[in-house]
Amino acid sequence: MQNYLTHDATALADLVAVGDVSPHELLEEAIQRAEARDGDINAVSQRLYDHGRAAIDAGLPDGPFRGVPFLLKDASGELAGHVTANGARLLAKGAPATADSTLVARYKAAGLVIFGRTTTPEFSLAASTETSLTGATRNPWDITRTAGGSSGGAAAVVAAGIVPAAHGSDGGGSIRIPASCCGLFGLKPSRARNPAGPLIGEGWGSLSCAHVLTRSVRDSALMLDATHGIAPGDPYCAPPVLRPYAEEVRADAGRLRIGWHIPPMNGAEVAPVCREAAEDAAKLLASLGHEVEETTLPGSAERLQRAIWVLVASNVARSISAIAAHRDQVVTEEDVDNVTWRAVSDARMMTAEDYAEALYQIHTQSRLMAELHSRYDVILCPTLATPPPKLGVQRTDTDDVDGYHAALVNFTPFTQLHNMTGAPSVSVPLYWAGGLPIGTMLSADFGREDILFRLSAQLEQARPWFDRLPPIVD
Can you give the pTM of this predicted structure? Predict the structure, then answer.
């Protein structure tokens, strides 16, 4: 186990396959690391160690990640026999799931050993993982700063060397934001590339989808090979995959047309280091032979910001109402964090016409972006407008909800666009400043994860990041 950190999930599975290490040995190593490091980062919300041990004893499927330890985000992934709390006091003592979600079933079929859950802000509503249920999750690169959100716990456990990959979900940047904060590779797939069922048809009115955060590009690609594809009852599906994503990682990226921009659509100020990271990435891509030019984005930030809040708030409110109906109780302001209650309150003032208008706006934006992608294979920009901020501002239990919303908009003005269009988008860790990782975001046309995997693998080879580890890792 001296080499645990030098192996990604694919390599660990290879060790298991040839008998150099056993699944039990890998699991106990991951547990030991979780116990040693979680006191510093506060990223593991449920310790399901015996569940992992029992899965190994029962016999693991012969999948591509057989024997690799794995952690689920405490949202968007039901695990039979266990509670999904969604970062909420309201759900923490709820009923355990009676069956696995489709995605979790596919993780198990891939041979992954699930042994716990990671922290998330309440109902995944924040870009920082700070909630009244679990407290603040801390960034392994600087424990005074956020690990991002809402998959902040997932990013923290991967960056801290507890597991090589962890489950996350992304409804407004929630994979890419923490990937940038923690120096990881984080891909948001195309809408419906991974299944959301069976309990829901789509997350947040089509905005949200799930995948993983990883240290290597190939782990993300092979994981998507193991999980993607339509499931019975899904309302729609992503475009077909032309060949395995694991093959895309090994393929020539070709000469791509790349448009890059710095100013976000909402006009938020971009910190110099975030600007420098994007400019540096543009220069690197040009040096690799790609056509790179500056561009601007089409669309109305004001209309899109309204649209995404209508979709998010109304879906959160619907979830709260469903919980109340199931329990035959009234859910009050005292039962949830203030940010969640603002979403519920706002949703109750919205109309059916507001919801239809929100869908109209995101579909209009999708067509505008499709036209832009007729000129560019990839759009490049900063992942975030600032480095990871100090903890305390973006708590879901804050008393200053207006201040929270202002901080959110100014921190994450880039990521939400691609949730609204449903297009694939990835944060790549190419740049560090002041000891902190600064992500660069690459986005492709709807259904074109293949382009992003080829290009990301080329960047990973040109400027390797796998061995860059935070001070917390010994």
Answer: 0.98
